[in-house]
Structure formats: C-alpha cells, structure tokens
C-alpha cells in the first residue's frame, strides 16, 4: 500500500479513505472493481482462543489445507454475524437451545460454551470462508500506471443499540503504508467508457465518484474528445467534497464540460443529485438525444432508484412522451449499452 488518506475533513459525519496500492503489470479497465478479503480483528481472535482455552498455534485442517487455529480465525473464516443456519448448527453441535437469529462466534462461545477444544475445532471447520468485498476502481490504467486506487467509506451501522463498523471497511481504514494486500480484479464488462468521441453523463454521489475519477483520469490522459458531465453529491461542501482539487482541475482544463454538485446538508431542504438532474432537464435530454451514455455509480438504495425516476421524468417531460414511451426510450438506451449502473 502506497497511500491511505481520509478525504473527509474534520467535522464530517463520514470517513472515506482513498487507498492506493502498487500493482505492477495489473490488467484492468475503467469500470472494474477489485475484491479484497478482510482479516478478522486480532483482539476478537485472541478473545475467542482464550474463551475456549485453545492453542492458537495448533495446526488443523481446513478445506484440505493445514493451518494454525490462530491463522484460520484471523484470515480464513467468517466469525462475525453468522447466518441463522450456522447458529442453528452451533446449537445442534453443542446441545444448547439458542434463539433463532444471527450472532457473532465470540458471543456464542461466551453464552453457550463448547464442551471441549475438539468440539470447538469441529465448529470452526464448519464455518464459511470470509467473503470478499468489492471496491470500484478509482484509478485509470493509463493515468496511474502500476497502481490501483479505491475509495472506501467507513460502514457504520447500529445493532442492538451498539454502534458497529463493517468488517472490511474497518480493516481497510486501519491500513498502514507498506502493508501487502492480496486482491483480485472483478471485471464489469457492461460498465465501460464508450468510444472516445461520445459524450457521457456520470452520476456518482459518495463513493460512486470512484468509477468516474477513473473515467475522467482515463479520458484526460488519452485526450478523448467526448464531452463529460459529472453529478456529484455528498453531505457538506466544506468537509465532504471528495476529490475536490482534481474535479476543479478537470473543470478548469475542460475535461469536464459540466459539473453539477448537490450538498444535501448545506441548506434547510435536502438537495440530492436527482434534484440537480431535474434542474438541468433540457440539457440532459439534449445530451441523450445527441447519443450520450448515462452512468450511475454508488448506493443502490435509495440513490440509484431516485436517479432512474428523475431520468424517466426528464425523458417523458422533455421528449413529450408518455410514461410507457419514456420507459421504452430508457430500455433502448440500456440495450445499446448507453444506460449502465454500478450500484451496491
Ligand atoms: C460492485 C460493487 C462495488 C462496490 N464499490 C464500493 C466502493 O467503491 N466503495 C465502498 O466503500 N464500497 C463499495 N462497495 C461495498 C463494499 O463491497 C462493502 O459491501 C462495504 O465496504 C461494506 O463492507 P464491510 O465489510 O465494511 O461491512 P460488513 O461487515 O459486510 O457489513 C455490511 C452490512 O451488514 C450488516 N451487518 C454486518 N454485521 C452486522 C451485525 N453484527 N449486526 C447487524 N448488522 C450487521 C450491516 O447492515 C452492515 O452495514 C461495493 C460493492 C459492490 C457489490
């Protein structure tokens, strides 16, 4: 890892990390993601080993591989928020009656102890592998040769009155420069820049900007002639304008033809990217009529649905169409690969 910066300023409600990894000879295209398997928290792993009085250095077999109990817990198996099925399996194996629902392994071991270390090991090998998390690539293969960049927001949520952080975003948040990380490229064949002379409209609030930093850096580096219009949104201009300097530079140098910004908490009423789209309805429709592609990246709920609703409204109103005709227009765009989403 080369660089790791929180792009939000002090006073923000968010922490969004720009992470740069050195990746020589890596093949990827703008629009792809990388997959990372996070490690479990060291303290939780140590607590689990202590609770059952196990030997962390003991080697056991997991999926035809010999591995120490510590390494298995730290790097291989998912020990948090176990599925209902696995909690049920734990209940059957240990003979305890456990209410239905999801739970962490440590919590189960404390509340419903195993009989012995052998039973603990049996439970461990029955657990699922940690699933990889995908992150949209924020760099361009042409502009950032030998590197790959991602943008990761700290995933904060509440459970039973406790404030918790998602496993992988917490893992990446704690990254230190120089750390080595294994990852894979997850291609996204549909989310691709069109021909260099074609116009693009990009709607990418929050971490959705990642894909469009990649697109814009690529179009800048290759001197693409198509026009580029970015819609970006976050909570506050002063603390949350991710990649502000680069976006301003692209606007000043003409790489970005238009930039439309929506900072939801800078005024009384909430303003989101879809509101900025509606304000620019005639120009958006004209771009679409001229053959522009429309891309959306970021949160599926509710953002991508609200953006689609706004887009349909624009097509219907500006094109004097019925709701069905507007839907048909969007479906045709989709068929031509001119309406693409990378949402999660
Ligand atoms: C194609 C694609 C591209 C993506 N690109 C990006 C990107 O560019 N940037 C980015 O930041 N993210 C991106 N994501 C999302 C990312 O992959 C992860 O899902 C995200 O970082 C959260 O992972 P996590 O391990 O931190 O959270 P997890 O630990 O997986 O938790 C996720 C959610 O599960 C629930 N949960 C987990 N544990 C508990 C519990 N104990 N109790 C109750 N609820 C619980 C919560 O709702 C929590 O918010 C992308 C996803 C996809 C599919």
SSE layout:
Blueprint: E1 3-6, E2 16-22, E3 33-36, H1 42-52, E4 59-62, E5 65-68, H2 69-76, H3 84-94, H4 105-111, H5 117-125, E6 133-136, E7 147-153, E8 156-159, E9 162-165, H6 167-173, E10 184-186, E11 200-203, H7 209-222, E12 228-234, H8 237-240, H9 244-252, E13 258-263, H10 273-279, H11 281-289, E14 293-298, H12 300-318, H13 323-335, E15 339-343
Parallel strand pairs: 11-12, 11-14, 12-13, 14-15
Antiparallel strand pairs: 1-2, 2-7, 3-6, 3-10, 4-5, 8-9
Structure description:
The chain has 344 residues and is α/β, with parallel strands linked by helices. The protein folds into three domains: 3-35 and 134-186, Beta Barrel (Elongation Factor Tu (Ef-tu), domain 3), CATH 2.40.30; 42-125, NADPH-cytochrome p450 Reductase, Chain A, domain 3; 200-343, Nucleotide-binding domain of ferredoxin-NADP reductase (FNR) module (Rossmann fold, 3-Layer(aba) Sandwich), CATH 3.40.50. Helix content is 37%, strand content 21%. The chain contains 13 helices and 15 strands. The protein has helices at 42-52, 69-76, 84-94, 105-111, 117-125, 167-173, 209-222, 237-240, 244-252, 273-279, 281-289, 300-318, 323-335, and strands at residues 3-6, 16-22, 33-36, 59-62, 65-68, 133-136, 147-153, 156-159, 162-165, 184-186, 200-203, 228-234, 258-263, 293-298, 339-343. The strands form five sheets. It has a five-stranded parallel sheet with strand order 13-12-11-14-15, sandwiched between helices. The longest helix is centred in the last third of the chain and has 19 residues, at 300-318. The protein is elongated and about 70 Å long. Bound molecules: flavin-adenine dinucleotide. Flavin-adenine dinucleotide binds at residues 33, 38, 80-81, 133-136, 151-153, 155, 157, 159, 164, 166-169, 207, 210, 342, 344. Flavin-adenine dinucleotide (FAD) is lined by residues 33, 38, 80-81, 133-136, 151-153, 155, 157, 159, 164, 166-169, 207, 210, 342, 344.
